[in-house]
Amino acid sequence: MKYLTEFRDPALTKTLIQKIEKKAIQEVIIMEVCGTHTMSIFKSGLRGLLPPQVRLISGPGCPVCVTPQSYIDTAIQLTERQDVILTAFGDMLRVPGTEGSLMAQKSKGRDVRMVYSPMDAVQLALDNPHKEVVFLAVGFETTAPAIALSVDQAKKADIHNYSILQSIKTMPNTMEALVVEEDIQIHGFLCPGHVSAVIGVKPYRFLSEKYGLPAVIAGFESLDILMGIYHILDMMDKKDYKVVNEYTRLVSEEGNLKALEMITKIFEVTASVWRGLGSIEGTGLKLKQEYENYDTVKKLGIQMASEQPVKGCICGEILKGKACPLDCRLFSTACTPENPVGACMVSEEGTCAAYYKYGEFRD
Amino acid sequence: MELITLAHGSGGKSSHQLIEGLFYKYFRNDILEQRNDASVLPEILGRIAVSTDSFVIHPVFFPGGDIGKLSVYGTVNDLAMSGAKPLYITAAFIIEEGFPLKDLEKIVASMSEAAKAAEVKIIAGDTKVVEAGSADQIYINTTGIGILPKDMNIGGQNAKGGDKILVSGTLGDHGTAIMALRKGFEFVTDLESDCGLLSGMIQEILQAGADIKVLRDPTRGGLAATLNEISQQSKVGMLLEEGAIPVKQAVRSLCEILGLDPLYIANEGKLLVIAAEEDAERVLAVMKNHPLGKDAAMIGTVMDSPKGQVYLKTEIGGTRILHMPAGELLPRIC
Prior knowledge:
CATH architecture of the largest domain in chain A: 3-Layer(aba) Sandwich
Strand content of chain A: 15-25%
Shape of chain A: globular
Number of strands of chain A: 11
Number of helices of chain B: 8
Shape of chain B: globular
Largest sheet of chain A: 6 strands, mixed
Strand order of the largest sheet of chain A: 4-3-5-6-11-10
Low-confidence stretches of chain B: none
Radius of gyration of chain B: 21 Å
Radius of gyration of chain A: 21 Å
Oligomer: heterodimer
CATH topology of the largest domain in chain A: Rossmann fold
CATH class of the largest domain in chain B: Alpha Beta
């Protein structure tokens, strides 16, 4: 199957949009939680094709964007140590801290390396026995299994110079935090496809059962997203609220059991600090006690930097879907992808970056 | 294995051996034979086009080419984009101590071959060797000059509403092929760099007598950067049809995996042409007829407004802005 063409079929797209137009009788606000959805929606120009009653708002599902500034500041401080090699996923390098970024540190000659997998960082630790290799452990249930695996493997191989700076987050409880916040209006959710491939369908059930909200687990191609929107409208029309798994080619009811097993072996649930949202109970993962030796903070005896709010930046409001990038006075003036002020402008998946990069066609 | 040492760049005996044994051996021509501090060229009648470029590619040998071939074609192509006939180039090397002599010979031989294909003479050169760690293997700078026909006026400022935008083949091949080789990836692809000589195709296009407004080779920053530059220079807008833009399946897949966009990825042997609407079909036919242009396509139209903006009509019918790329391309987390 050619995933890149079949799920972007122009004729089917047209048919689905017509069906959506018929169903969209009143204003509907749908949050796409995942950053990859946001990007895909902009990249395909989908927003412009939807009827104006269907409003898509972007949620806090970009791992880079939700990483607090204090975390980056701590990482930057770590790069000043001669005994540390700092490793991170590519788009973490550009995230602004209070002063500078990891990219800027790299330019100054500090040992910052981009890796594609935490396992590469473990290999680096093997190759550099006299250095402490720190991996910036960010992301959601998507990156958590690979990070867990890296810790597991490091322990099995008796590698003692590898540790992770923790800021892993989890999705369902975060979505619940958004639902219960009074001034956020969401009529339905497009659930994150990659996260769902790991956790399955069950963890979202509370959305329909407890809050009467329709939710669809959707893939990332245009047709996936349109199908998701159509299902949400259809459920609202029939007042029959469920969690529908539309991404069955990747997401099973139970999720990826092996990955889940690896997560629970290494991590336990904790509170987590979100940029702009503050600390939310039950939305993070931390190393279990028996793996504490792999926790950079404990191992090196360092303190996490304190969180300094960024003046004028409304990333927090944007992550909650309460404001749109165009509402921010820094957007595209003081804050651009070359010189991001807030994290939503940094990652390709960030709402502000998507607005900036792909813009909207104005005749 | 013989290695380049600091002595090779010192101006002494070793330098002399390197120049005689390698550079003269491969680059020999009547002008270089003058052996003076400056080469003196015969009189050139007409306007002269000049271009310079430095090449710092890693790895230096890659599928479809090497830094030597790239450094000649790169500058020759840039000259050709003005409509000039390339005549001469210079070559300056900065080499990291410890670089294998055998590899340098391969690079120099490749430059010599490329210069022959491009019908240019290498007329001046320089070699410096720096300490290990001060440079990454080898850097090459080439500067070229060419002669322009009398009434030739091709440039980024000439695009007008209604003009058509054409490309000579699939986009993103070079950058993707190089990226697939980088440390940390284990992609097995048959992708090759498109590193190629465009002056031949350009001469054929110009001989067809079409009204050519702009010629460019979309190297760094890819098609998106090049079109944004032109739209700003010419103060016009552009609308591209995503479905018409040729991209290899392997490039598309690799970009999809890495979260990159082929329209922002470097090409090293692709020609972008903006031609008057009435001549566009004819130009396309000439391009398709050339060995390097079999995948040539008409991909969009120049609009009078909005000025300085490039839009892309997506395959599903949506429209988005194709921005100037910002910063380094970084893979996304997930």
